[in-house]
Write a structure and sequence with these properties.
The complex is a heterodimer. By secondary structure, chain A is an alpha+beta fold. In chain A, 56% of the residues lie in helices and 14% in strands. Chain A contains 17 helices and 9 strands. The two termini of chain A are 78 Å apart. In chain B, 74% of the residues lie in helices and 1% in strands. Chain B contains 9 helices and 1 strand; from the N terminus they run H-H-H-H-H-E-H-H-H-H. Chain B is elongated, with a radius of gyration of 22 Å. The chains are: A alpha+beta, B mainly alpha. At the A-B interface, helix 1, helix 4, helix 10, helix 12 and strand 1 of A face helix 1, helix 2, helix 5, strand 1 and helix 8 of B.
Chain lengths: 584, 278
């Protein structure tokens, strides 16, 4: 039966007559056997079953098994790297590039882990560095509570070598130990950073893969920058000598106080000793005076010794506690300095990592005009709003500031523009601080109380109080106070002011006048541009006859004379933005 | 014993799932071959062995797609008494085209397998699967209207264009929007750009690395040109399109591999359109 073309998937060709007479080569017969789309040559038999199926299935199974096995082997080797038990040569890893986001996360995690590891080490290391000082406290205390020791401490204080003995006894190797602490902290930071990077790379990259060359370059670059950025070991800490001098001054002061307090007793003993000596030494004839003097000195020393013994008996533990407390305080200062240094280092490393990440990769979208146009529009909007505020206090009203901050915060996660957003956020921290730099208060007292008499007083601006010096006021022109101030309003935009004036009369008791008001700064600035505008507000000065001092004055009169208050304002000039993207 | 209607329905159902099976098998076969190649390449040039099965499948599958239509046309064109039929068998032509296509497709696949990211690989695998599936659906439809081998030839060409054109756009957009380019390219000179491209090859050297340095270097130079002319955004799109033309090869290869599996692995008589058995 002839098969239809649908059955054979073959051409409905008549058998090629010549083919029956041509000898088949091995290849031709192979191909004929492999093809099912050619009818059997005139035989009417169905096409032979393909012999390639077994080969295909075996190949498929082998490739699948090998792929799975090799992936598992790579996973196992990767696990060996994390355990430190194995190594993976570059030739055995599949290159896989980490994205910028992955790289940033890796570096950030490594940085945080390194900073935390160092923070945990600071305390124990400082304890070890200061332990010799604690251990030497009893020895120094023995020296302190000795006659010779006390005279030595006073003597060194007099000649200026304060603290030599302290430094020698308590802080002999402290400088060396502190340097060692700094160096060890550096090692901890660097090793933790690199270890966390290696661990993170093992977790992030898919099994059976290593890191691509670009990622490797970025990691190496970041590690190198980390090594040289803001090292902890160079943080300025107070050395042992300076510490000793500080301690010694305090101890010497105590000694001098004690010495003065006990001086009378000592002289009593000297007198007793001298007289006793004179009596005992009377037989020496001409040398009796010397003998008496020696007796007096001896008595003085005996008195000193007794005083020192008593002092030690009563105060030794307190003295040791005080020494320990001073060392504790110093250690705490060192700790704070080192912790700040570590934080500064972590921040500096983070900044360097940002640079590395931004150089790591980009997309064509970011490079081309289409993607960049959106970024550029956003950046241009931010920059223009910021530039408006840069040189004009009027533009820094709370609504605009809040809107710009919110926009910058929203873009903090956008890879292309976040540096600009972050810079704007940082620069705006000082933007809404307003300082009142000058005051001019002009006015006159109520008509009934006007006189050619001096006036003084004070002005309250929110929580600040400014004293107004005494000046001359006339009945006709009134008074004019002009003051320079540095009152910082902070982020407040509402200014509450209250003026209290005291009129100094010659015969009668002084009279007191007060007035107050409230102004919204930005409403008062109105259309004035620049960073140093002036605003003028008014108030009424009313007489308060229920008070006898300017402090108890009521500043809420119902009636009164007009006065004006001119305030000179100043705002900080915002720095120019450095991280705006390059846009046409 | 099943009634003829139920048997016909079962047969139809089985034959409807067959294109999915073949497309899936073709995709998996190609994925395993290329993943084995990628895993082994970093260690040794013997990794090329992983590509041989794929090359064989492509070559064997491409052969009838080229030869059968030629023979059909020759049969129509030649007179029965002509002696030229002994010479104009079309085998040399089919051999040349098969070898050329096999080398081009396997070479492109091998290169892309080394540099593709996981999301991009997923996209390419999906396109491969869809092209294989669409081929069978198209052939089943065209068999009702065309004789073989023309139904197959038209299905091949039609599927390639229908799948590859949107796939080209998808790949072009994906590369343009998401494919990471080394940041060091932004400031690199021409030679430095070449070096950056070649650093993607393993440092061990070898003849395969020498061969592959050509496409990697070409890619790096192309990116360098785009970076230098970044003020002309259209060039960035051309870069992506250049990469995405690979999708045409991808679709045709999917059809070829599926054709091979259909003919030599899962061969079975297809149902007649009316469910009648031969």
């Amino acid at each position: 039966m002839t098969l239809s073309e649908k059955d054979t998937h073959g051409a409905t060709l008549a058998p090629v007559q010549d083919a029956r007479h041509n000898p088949s080569t091995k290849m031709e017969s192979f191909w004929r056997a492999a093809r099912s789309d050619v009818e059997a040559e005139g035989s009417g038999k169905p096409a032979r079953q393909s012999s390639l199926a077994p080969w295909f299935w075996w190949t498929f199974a082998i490739m699948a098994a090998l792929s799975i096995l090799m992936s598992a082997a790579a996973l196992w080797r990767q696990g060996g790297i994390q355990d430190g038990s194995g190594s993976l040569s570059p030739n055995q890893r599949i290159a896989s590039e980490a994205s910028a986001a992955e790289l940033e996360s890796l570096l950030d995690t490594a940085n945080r882990s390194a900073a935390e590891a160092v923070m945990q080490q600071i305390g124990p290391m400082l304890d070890a560095a200061y332990q010799p000082a604690y251990d030497a406290i009893p020895a120094y205390t023995d020296f302190h509570y000795s006659v010779w020791g006390q005279y030595a401490e006073l003597g060194t204080a007099l000649i200026g070598n304060v603290g030599d003995k302290l430094e020698e006894t308590l802080f002999d190797d402290l400088d060396t130990h502190l340097e060692s602490v700094g160096a060890k902290l550096e090692i901890v930071f660097a090793s933790t950073f690199e270890q966390e990077l290696a661990t993170g790379l093992g977790r992030t990259i898919a099994s059976g893969t290593g890191i691509g060359p670009m990622t490797a370059i970025a990691i190496t670059d970041a590690t190198h920058r980390m090594m040289v950025t803001a090292p902890v070991r160079v943080v300025a800490v107070v050395g042992g000598g300076a510490i000793a001098r500080t301690f010694a001054r305090r101890i010497a002061y105590r000694l001098s106080v004690k010495a003065a307090a006990n001086l009378s007793g000592r002289w009593v003993m000297v007198g007793t000793g001298a007289s006793g000596g004179a009596l005992l030494c009377s037989w020496t004839g001409p040398l009796a005076a010397l003998c008496a003097a020696a007796g007096g000195i001896g008595a003085y020393l005996v008195a000193d010794y007794g005083i020192v013994m008593l002092d030690e008996y009563w105060n030794r533990s307190d003295f040791e506690d005080e020494l320990r407390a001073m060392i504790d305080d110093q250690k705490a200062e060192h700790r704070a300095a080192l912790e700040n240094a570590v934080l500064a280092r972590a921040i500096a490393v983070q900044e360097e990592a940002i640079v590395v990440v931004e150089q790591h990769d980009f997309t064509l979208r970011e490079l081309s005009g289409v993607g960049n146009a959106a970024i550029c529009r956003t950046a241009t909007d931010l920059v223009s709003r910021y530039d408006l505020m840069r040189g004009s206090l009027r533009q820094r009203n709370p609504g605009a500031m809040q809107a710009l901050r919110a926009a910058a915060n929203e873009l903090a996660g956008d890879f292309s523009i976040r540096r600009l957003a972050r810079e704007i956020t940082e620069n705006l921290e000082e933007a809404d601080h307003i300082t009142i730099t000058s005051l001019v208060i002009e006015g006159n007292l109520p008509t009934d109380q006007r006189a050619d008499r001096d006036v003084s007083g004070h002005l309250h601006l929110n929580d600040s109080m400014i004293a107004i010096p005494r000046i001359n006021a006339t009945e006709d022109s009134g008074f004019r106070f002009a003051l320079e101030t540095e009152v910082v309003l902070g982020q407040e935009t509402i200014l509450n002011y209250a003026l209290a004036v005291e009129q100094h009369l010659r015969i009668w008791r002084n009279l007191y006048f007060g007035g107050n008001g409230t102004v919204e700064i930005f409403s008062a600035i109105d259309e004035v541009d620049g960073l140093e505008p002036e605003i003028e507000v008014g108030l009424r000065l009313g007489h308060d006859d229920n008070t006898s001092s300017v402090e108890g004055l009521s500043t809420t009169p119902i009636h009164g004379a007009e006065a004006s208050l001119s305030l000179g304002l100043r705002a900080v000039l915002l720095p120019e933005l450095q991280n705006a993207p390059n846009c046409p | 014993m099943l009634s003829p209607e139920i048997g016909t329905l079962a047969s139809l159902r089985m034959h409807m799932s067959r294109p999915f099976q073949i497309a899936a098998l073709a995709t998996l076969f190609t994925i395993f071959s290329l993943s084995l190649w990628r895993l082994a390449f970093v260690a040794s040039d013997w990794a090329v062995l992983a590509l041989l099965p794929l090359a064989a499948v492509i070559g064997i599958g491409f052969w009838p797609l080229t030869l059968s239509p030629w023979k059909a046309r020759l049969h129509i064109a030649l007179r029965p008494e002509s002696q030229w039929g002994k010479r104009l068998t079309g085998k040399i032509r089919a051999m040349v085209f098969s070898v050329a296509f096999t080398l081009a497709s396997v070479g492109l696949f091998a290169w892309q397998a080394l540099r593709t990211t996981a999301p991009e690989a997923l996209l390419l695998a999906l396109i491969f699967f869809l092209s294989a599936l669409a081929y069978f659906l198209a052939q089943n439809l065209l068999l009702r209207h065309f004789h073989q081998p023309f139904a197959r030839a038209i299905a091949t060409s039609l599927t390639t264009w229908v799948v590859a054109i949107p796939a080209t756009g998808m790949i072009a957009w994906f590369v343009w929007a998401f494919a990471p380019m080394p940041g060091t390219m932004l400031d690199a000179g021409f030679q430095q750009a070449l070096q950056i491209g070649l650093t993607q090859l393993p440092p061990r050297g070898g003849w395969l690395s020498t061969l592959l340095s050509v496409p990697f270097g070409y890619e790096a130079v192309k990116l360098w040109v785009v970076v230098q002319l970044q003020d002309y955004p259209a060039l960035a799109w051309l870069f992506s399109l250049d990469v995405a033309f690979f999708s045409f090869i991808l679709c045709r290869t999917g059809i070829v591999v599926a054709q091979f599996i259909d003919t030599h692995v899962l061969h079975m008589p297809p149902p007649s359109p009316l469910g009648e058995e031969a």
